[in-house]
Structures are given as structure tokens and as C-alpha cells.
Amino acid sequence: MIKCAMFDLDGTLVNTIDDLARAADYTLIQYGVEPKWSVDDYLRFVGNGAKLLVSRAFENKLSDEELNRAFAIFKAKYNEILLDNAYVYDGIMPSLDAIKAQGVKLAVVTNKPNDAAVKIVETLFGEGCFECVYGAFEDKPKKPDKYLPSSALATVGAAGEESIFFGDSDVDVETARSVGAYAVSCSWGFRDRETLEKAHPDSIIDNPADIINFFKKTVDK
């Protein structure tokens, strides 16, 4: 019996890449660095938390102190623009409604800074759509560590084996494994299908609408 469906945020529920890229480019400019990265480059940089995104934008050349300052600039700018271009992928809302209708609890588990994650989720999905949102804090472990998914599972009262984790990266597959959840990779996000296959998830789906059919089959087992 599946009790919980956990979702990554960026690239799984919501397309956020344009605003992430804009905030990173802005940060580079503040340091006198001419932005040179394409959106495709930034798609490769995301997945391990916003600070690593910033570090990669600077080609990992910043000292720890410089990175902390650059990250603060990035966060301030991103919090200002994070909803300018972000949008929910087509087909996500009907899938979430169908899952909730089956009595399954929904959770967001993301490496996006927690305040930004909560703001995006509450704005685009409304308060109460998800039982909980667990984003990243600088002093807490990030995905693929089990800390965030374990916290979500404790909040909704489900065990790892009673849950499914939907994400768009190898990090999400590892995160699902960390708590014993069924790992589903979503190919419409920030990683291509070939990359996802190399991570060996339990299943790969190619369209948000596929969540409904997959989930019904899983629950019926």
C-alpha cells in the first residue's frame, strides 16, 4: 500500500531554469565576470543545491569565503525573480489531483533553499496541495542524503517502502534509495533519458500524465 508520493521540485513539478540562470548570470556580473553559460549549461549545473550551482557557474574557482558571498548575492536575486518565468509542467496538476483522490499524501523534497521552495509551491500549487515541503538549509544534509526524505516521511507517517519518489536526476534516484522508496525518473525535466537510464531507476516516465497510470498500477498491486 503506497501512502506517500514524494516529488523533487525543479525539473519535476516546475520548470525553474530560466530564473535560476538569470540569477546566476547576475551574480557573475557582480563579480565582473561576463556570463557565458547557456540554459543547457545551467541544466547541467543544477541538482546538488543552489550553492553548487553558483560554484559551477564560477567554474569552481571561488574560495569558500568568496563562494559564500556569491551565494548570498545569488539568493537575494533569485528570491526577487523566482516566479518571473517559473511554471508548472502541463499534466502535473491532474496527476496530483488523481493521487490525492486515492488518499495518498504528497510531499516536496528538494535541494532548493527552503524559503524559495515553500514560496514557489504555495504560489503555484496553493497552500495545502502538499502535506509538507522540505527544502535545503545550509546546516542540514541535502539530497541524496536521507535527511530530507526521512523528514518528509515522518511528517506524513509513512515508511520508505510505502512511498514513491519522483525526480528528474540521478540525485533523486539515490535519494529514493536512501529511504527504500520506489524511484521513478521523469524525463521531461532537466536531464535527458539517456542520463536517467544510467542512474538505473525503478521506472522512467516521459510525460507528467504518465504519473496517473503508473501510480494506479502500483497501488493495484
Shape call: globular
Query: What is the structural class?
Result: alpha/beta
Quaternary organization: single chain
As a whole number of angstroms, the C-alpha radius of gyration is 17 Å
Placed side by side, the strands forming the largest sheet appear as 5-4-1-6-7-8
Distance linking N and C termini = 8 Å
Share of β-strand residues: 15-25%
Number of strands: 8
What are the low-pLDDT stretches, counting only 5+ consecutive residues below 50? none
Q: What sequence of helices (H) and strands (E) makes up the elements?
A: EEHHHHEHEHEHEHEHEH
Number of helices: 10
Biggest sheet details: 6 strands, parallel
Estimate percent helicity: 40-55%
Mean pLDDT rating: 94
Structure, described:
This protein has helices at 17-30, 39-45, 50-57, 64-81, 92-101, 114-125, 147-156, 170-179, 193-198, 210-220; strands at residues 4-7, 14-15, 87-88, 105-113, 132-136, 163-167, 182-186, 203-205. With 221 residues, it is α/β, with parallel strands linked by helices. The strands form 2 sheets. It has a 6-stranded parallel beta sheet with strand order 5-4-1-6-7-8, with helices on both faces. Strands 2-3 form a two-stranded antiparallel ribbon. The longest helix has 18 residues, at 64-81. The radius of gyration is 17 Å and the shape is globular. It starts with a strand and ends with a helix. 42% of the residues are buried. The mean pLDDT is 94.
